[in-house]
Structure formats: structure tokens, C-alpha cells
Amino acid sequence: MTTRTARSSRGRRRGGPSHAVARGRSYQGPLWGALAALTVLGAAGFVAVDGGSSGTDVRSGPTERARSGRLGSTAPTSAPPTASASPSPRTSPTPTPDLPATGPGTFITAAGGSGEVGSGTVLRYRVDVETGINLSPTDVARQVDRILADPRGWTADGRSAFERVSSGPADFAVRVATPGTVDRICGEYGLDTGGEVNCDVGKNVMVNLRRWLLATPVYAHRVKDYRALIVNHEVGHFLGHGHVGCPGAGRPAPVMMQQIKGMYGCLPNVWPYDDRGRYVTGPAVS
User: Fold this and answer.
1) Per-residue pLDDT tens for 85-143?
2) CA–CA separation, 238 vs 25, rounded Å?
3) Alpha carbon 223 to chain centroid, angstroms
4) How far is it, in rounded angstroms, from Cα 149 to Cα 164?
């Protein structure tokens, strides 16, 4: 697989503009300040991991920096409002029970593997969990496997296939790590994740332990759905998709929308495709 440029899911380039522009997502505005806007969802439903819906307010994963998408997006119609600057990287995250602020930076790879899912180019991936955190690599791998195999996931594009491996070459790795370790690895590519968000850099889809365990206020009661959003958003960047905005009030929010910054009238959604195999997208966001 060709090496990709660095991507950031929720961060910005150090010393650069107030949002990340590396391969990944851009984050603008303090995390929890941005989340406050999400209360406008009220009783809106969302598409859940198990295919059900709920009236619970839902919010999506960490932001990333914009990249042009390989599948293409619809022409911009209206851009979401711009949020304020991202959180300071110098603000150390406050540890919560079972959530250390940083770790050793070494990883345990989940054993075993999965069969191929999807058709087209097979992308082999590992699932790694940082040493010393209270997560089972096997359990994390099962969740990631389910997300990538879901018929509403990226395999619905007809071009992408996935297979988990535990040894040998891998195209990318989904790595759950402490906030400090995520900051360090993402920072090596010039991205600022501020102890709060995820990033996609090199061959690493870095998942912040804080987000994996606590989700966000919108997804507080649907943590597993939020995990699907994290994985789908970040792997979407890996596949070449950039950020998009809300396609219209009352419509599902695209996975590649930075839902963490607000829903702008869209309904929460954690899948790239709907139940009928239609790609959920919106106007391109630079």
C-alpha cells in the first residue's frame, strides 16, 4: 500500500492554523464547549451499532484534519459555522478512575485474526492496545472487527475489504492508547490532539482511551455506537475521505462530518452507508 501523508482526526498542526490540516480531521473549539451546541438534538434518533434507533442525543468522535476524499463528496451548499480555537496542548488531561493520563507507549497486539470482509482491495489491519491499561486486546479487536464488517460500513463502497492479522505485514493498525501517548505519536506528524482527541497518521489510527471509555456527552449512553463512529471516521480518512458538512436539517449526519463540533440540524449517525446501501455524505468542508 502506498504511504499516505499524515492525517489528524482531532487535532491541528503545531504552530499552524487553529485546525488540523494533516491527513485526518480538524478540531476547532474547546471539546466540551463545542459539545454544548449538541443539546439542540433534543429527542432526535440515531442509527445504532445494532441497527436500532434511540431518542438519546448522540455525538460523534474526535475531529480530524480535512483531506480530499477518494470517493468524492457532493458540492458544497452550506458550511457549518466555525468554532473557536482548539484546546491547548499544554493543558494536561485530568485522569479519571481507570483512565491514566499517559502510558509507556508500548503495545499488545490482539491475537488471532478475522476472515476477509468486503470485496475489492484487501486492507490488512492489526488491533493494538497500550500496555498497562485496563482493556482486553481481544475484546477491543472483536469490536473493531464487527464495526469494519458491518454492511453499513466501508465495505459497502464495493472497493474496500478488510482482514485483521496479528503478525506479518499490515496496512494500518487501530491502536487504543492513553491521551499522552496519542499526543506523542500524533505530535510526531505535527498534529496537536490536546490530550482529548484521536488522529490518523502514517499507518496508525490512534484512538484516545478517554474517548473510547467515556465517549462524549451526546454519546454518553451509547458508548459502543460512539466507538463505531471513531473507527469509521478515522478509517474513512485512511481510505482518502475528507470532511463534509451536514446535508440538511433532519437528515443523517455523515460519518465524515465533524459531529463533535455540532450537529447543525442533522441526526446523529455512526455509519458511512445507510440500510439501503446509499452513501451518507454532505457538502465538502475545506
Assistant:
1) 223 333 334 445 568 999 999 999 999 999 999 999 999 999 999 999 999 999 999 99
2) 11
3) 13
4) 11
The separation between the first and the last C-alpha atoms of the chain, rounded to the nearest angstrom, is: 26
* Domain region containing 215: 12-88+102-261
> Looking at the whole model, is its pTM more than 0.85?
no
Could you give the CA distance from residue 253 to residue 261 in angstroms, rounded to a whole number? 12
Q: Confirm whether 71 is domain-assigned.
A: yes
User: Grid coordinates standing for 171?
Assistant: 496496512
Q: In total, how many domains does the chain have?
A: 1
The per-residue pLDDT for range 166-212, each reduced to its tens digit, is 999 999 999 999 999 999 999 999 999 999 999 999 999 999 999 99
Q: Tell me how far CA of residue 140 lies from CA of 55, 60, 75, 101, 224, in angstroms.
A: 26, 19, 37, 20, 11
Q: What Rg, from alpha-carbon coordinates, does the chain have?
A: 17
